[in-house]
Amino acid sequence: MVSRGELFSRTQRLLEESSVDSPRFDTQCIFEFAFGIPFPQIIMDRQQLVPDELSKKISALAKKRSEGYPLQYLMKSWEFMGYEFRVGEGVLIPRPDTETLVTQVIDICRENKWDAPKIVDLCSGSGCIAISLKRLIPNADVYAVELSVTAVAYIRENAELNRVPIHIIRGDALREGTAQLVGDADIIVCNPPYLTAEDMMRLQREVTYEPETALYGGRDGLDYYRKITPIWRSSLKDGGFLAYEFGYNQHEAVSGILAENGFEGISLRRDTAGITRTAAARKITNNTED
């Protein structure tokens, strides 16, 4: 048997040699997952021997991580907005950038004094946006729209895990028929696929394990914005908001699409890295439309 300290050093060294971005952090996560207790308790006694079966489990996890397999998939769950979400192959991993979108929606509700808004989350994936919004605005009527059968299963599991009731619709956000299932929304929020063809050619190895359908947004990354904006505009109340996340340097193009489709007061937000990451705009009231 090997000691906890030696196994930790060996694991971290393997990840360092494999060019993992944060080898120490990843090693700590692997140890917590394998032992089932917080890391400080694990390493308190570095000389304590690790049972062979547990040592083999840790080594197997470390090997997979060294090959580029996402840490989040190995852990089977990840934190978003301070809440736990189950994740795995076939569903996009929640990222801190997307917390900017949730925060912007929360601020819209606060500014408009909406304590029970109807919110629709398109391309919901793991459900992290929809479920976080329901937890943060308990009286909200929240819908999660997702096409992937695998992702829908994760949304259901995560809603149960976080003990929140939301409406789950399996449907294609790019089809008018899906939009007709949900009307009179106060806010429609969406983090669609937005990577360009060029982006897809230079993905980090970890990202290649995530579903391409949740990543690729067409040649210029804007296909979903062009299709979703006119389709879902009719599902918004007059004065309702459409809020998007997008990729690096896409803010002008997305703002243009919103303006062309009858939205005004476009508000942009930066993420924690200082990158313009989200936009929210209000549907222009027009009594003669529709």
Give an overview of the whole structure:
The structure is a single chain. This protein is α/β, with parallel strands linked by helices. Helix content is 41%, strand content 20%. It is built from 12 helices and 11 strands. It has helices spanning 4-17, 23-35, 39-43, 52-66, 71-75, 96-111, 128-136, 149-161, 176-179, 197-201, 223-233, 251-260; strands at 2-3, 49-50, 77-80, 83-86, 118-122, 141-146, 167-170, 185-190, 236-245, 263-270, 276-283. The strands form 3 sheets. Strands 7-6-5-8-9-11-10 form a 7-stranded mixed sheet, with helices on both faces. It has a two-stranded antiparallel ribbon with strand order 1-2. The termini are far apart. The mean pLDDT is 95.
Q: What's the topology here?
A:
Elements: E1 2-3, H1 4-17, H2 23-35, H3 39-43, E2 49-50, H4 52-66, H5 71-75, E3 77-80, E4 83-86, H6 96-111, E5 118-122, H7 128-136, E6 141-146, H8 149-161, E7 167-170, H9 176-179, E8 185-190, H10 197-201, H11 223-233, E9 236-245, H12 251-260, E10 263-270, E11 276-283
Parallel strand pairs: 5-6, 5-8, 6-7, 8-9
Antiparallel strand pairs: 1-2, 3-4, 9-11, 10-11
Helix pairs in contact: 1-2, 1-4, 2-4, 6-7
Strand order of the largest sheet: 7-6-5-8-9-11-10
How large a portion of the residues is in β-strands, by DSSP E?
15-25%
In total, the number of strands is 11
The total of helices stands at 12
Instruction: Determine the N-to-C terminus distance.
Output: 72 Å
pLDDT < 50 stretches: none
The biggest beta sheet, please?
7 strands, mixed
Shape: elongated
The secondary-structure class comes to alpha/beta
* CA-atom Rg in angstroms: 21 Å
Mean pLDDT: 95
Strand and helix order = EHHHEHHEEHEHEHEHEHHEHEE
- Helicity level: 40-55%
